[in-house]
Structures
1.
Amino acid sequence: MMQVPNALVLIQSGSAPFAAAGWMERLLIGPIGTSLAVIAVAWFGLGMLSGRLAMRRGALLVLGCFILFGAPVIARGLLNLAGETGGSRPAPVALTITPPPPAVTAPPAFDPYAGASVPQGN
């Protein structure tokens, strides 16, 4: 009887998108992801040895595997870097509201924009 690894069936409680992302992470970095990466590197290695694939493609594959399996460490490092550079919220500041000045009841007698066509109140 085949036993299913715990990494494939273990789902965390909480919100569904985060649980799905965690499940995908465990799936890709677990034994299935490692097996697929080994098969891909072997397949590309045979292709490079036979001259059908360029060296650059093989190097990109190996670099992609390093990024895939190092993603949790890279993400943790970036989050720590963001926390050190002031990524956290500052402490709340008490808000003081000043009332507006009282409204002017009568308009001023002199109007500089009235022009020559409007008689002055002198």
2.
Amino acid sequence: MNPEIKIKGIRDGLLIMVGDGEWADLQTGLLEQLQQRAGFIQGARITLDIGTHILHAAEMGKLRDTLSEMGVTLHTILSQSPITETTAQSLGLGTRLSKPHPDRVARPLDTSVREGEPGILVQRTLRSGYKLEYPGHVTIVGDVNPGAEVVASGSIIVWGRLRGVVHAGAEGDEQAFVCALVFAPTQLRIAGQITIPPQAAGRSQPEIVSLRDGQAVAEPWDVKR
């Protein structure tokens, strides 16, 4: 994995940050990383931060077309170069991260917790725009809708439909897991791994996903843990 290429989830899709080096090598590394995540990135909108690299119309257009063939959309180019920024605008690409709509601003949830508790129980559906972060385990009785996000240092259990963004083991706990009655997240992370096993997405039976040897494994959610 190229350390000069970093991928993380944002409200509008995926943010890819490209560091220093020869652009040809960086582009090759970028495409290889995305290909490895083919099942995860399908349909994603890409914001590409290329720093000071200068791209002209032919290069940028070819990259956009290649990404399109992979099933993702190059939506925004972030650059410190006026030339690159102008090129992006001429191709109809954005050059700024979009600001949240007032109705979509993440709102804090009322989840009062007694000091020392290792987890919380949230009895509600998390709708688009909500973000819940907790330094422990999170159990949700309700759905996690697309556009909602849950980040926990421990495991995440959804007694409902999981269709939003979840990050379990956010502080590096590779023993954390994610399970849901209907498993179809738009983005799934466990510890430092960004993944969504294709075999798990959209299945009707309850499923649990955990890491084994650094790889995500999906199983029916009928095993006592």
3.
Amino acid sequence: MNSSDRPFRRRIASNLLWTPGGLIRHPVVTFCDPEGTFFVESCPTPDRLPCTEFYAGVLVADFPADYVRVFERLRTAGGDLSRLLPQTVVDGGIWVVISGLDYASLRLVAASRIRAL
């Protein structure tokens, strides 16, 4: 077996995962193939899982591809991300992590950042 025969797997952990059904705490998202098939588990100790990337913040799937512009619009709008994200996500968008927010209120602050995954 050579390296090109290995199945694709990428595992990402974070503090929270936003979904239309609510927040998932301690998510571990495992991407199974390059087409984006994934599954989600909750794991309070992701540092014990081999080959796991950790990003502090909130993971969001299906964020618009022009994520920086959209993020700035969300910051300007203010308010709770659980109210803003349902109006923001799109089918076929990208995965992002939003960090540096006020976790108690899920509001963006001046130190908030976004990163495409």
4.
Amino acid sequence: MNKIYYLASCDTCRKIIKSLPNSNKLTFIDIRQNPISESELEEMYQLAGSYEALFSKKAQLYKSLGLKDKNLTEADFKKYLLEHYTFLSRPVFIIDGKIYIGNNQKNIQEVITVLS
């Protein structure tokens, strides 16, 4: 199943979703309404290779909790990803067994190409 994990209230996510061809091929999962389960996070981890790759260091909570000043381990990244949706680097696409993390231009272009 092809999926997109996103935040419905995120302007960047909404803009990206509007630009997607064949978005009806995706299952949409709003991470605020449906928090990521441990099994979903595990699937992402298997595809990404690390929890840190899924973790957003741009999140305001990251800064306000002082996490940027700590030496976080993979276990820490996993814990925070499960605790609060804001720590997931969004959007995350899983398409045909491949993961695309975040909103950088190259990543989104690859997703558009794969969905076309």
